[in-house]
Write a structure and sequence with these properties.
This protein has 177 residues and is α/β, with parallel strands linked by helices. The protein is built from 5 helices and 7 strands; from the N terminus they run βαβαβαβββαβα. The protein has a single domain, classed as Alpha/beta knot. A 7-stranded parallel beta sheet has the order 3-2-1-6-4-7-5.
Length: 177
């Protein structure tokens, strides 16, 4: 009789994802992004100044009853985040409509920081130039100025997880395809 010494099956290692919002202005977007981060198992980082109070009921309403469960960190500056978490260059993807490559080509390292600017100003030039070779865009037509911030963050976050082991907490229903 052989004994299985491998132990119980282990969960696949999930990638570590960080969504960074630099000076977000609209509470609904931040609440929606927080909920998306919770659903994807990502951390949310907010860089001051914020255009709203995190205690506002609008943020909580946008995140629904999930806001208290969101793994969120506040930073006084982008440099504070860099000093605290020390992302390596290959772990960073900055998003701008003026990015240099389509988001489909972004790398998918085990740890990744997806960085977005404010709704009206985008990312500061100092961040865009620092990570110029790691800047990405989500294709849009000329009929729109930009995507909504929460939509862009969701697209980028799930694209960054596409090559990871699939996860889903809900059992599929029989007969539904």
């Amino acid at each position: 009789m052989q004994i299985d010494k491998s132990g119980p099956p282990q969960e696949p290692i999930r990638p570590e994802r960080h969504v960074v919002l630099v000076a977000p202005e609209i509470h609904w977007n931040t609440g929606n992004i927080g909920r998306t981060c919770l659903a994807a198992g990502a951390r949310l980082h907010l860089i001051r100044p914020l255009g709203f109070s995190l205690g506002s009921r609008e943020v909580k309403r946008a995140g629904l009853d999930y806001w208290d469960q969101v793994n969120v960190s506040m930073w006084e500056s982008f440099e504070d985040l860099l000093d605290g978490l020390r992302p390596e260059a290959g772990e960073v993807a900055v998003f701008s409509k003026a990015g240099t490559r389509p988001f489909w080509g972004m790398p998918a390292p085990p740890r990744m920081f997806l960085i977005f600017g404010s709704e009206t100003h985008g990312l500061p030039e100092r961040i865009l130039s620092r990570y110029a070779e790691f800047s990405f865009y989500i294709p849009i037509t000329a009929r729109t100025r930009s995507l909504n911030l929460s939509t862009a963050a969701g697209i980028a976050l799930y694209e960054s997880l596409r090559q990871a082991a699939p996860f889903h907490a809900w059992e599929p229903r029989a007969g539904i395809r």
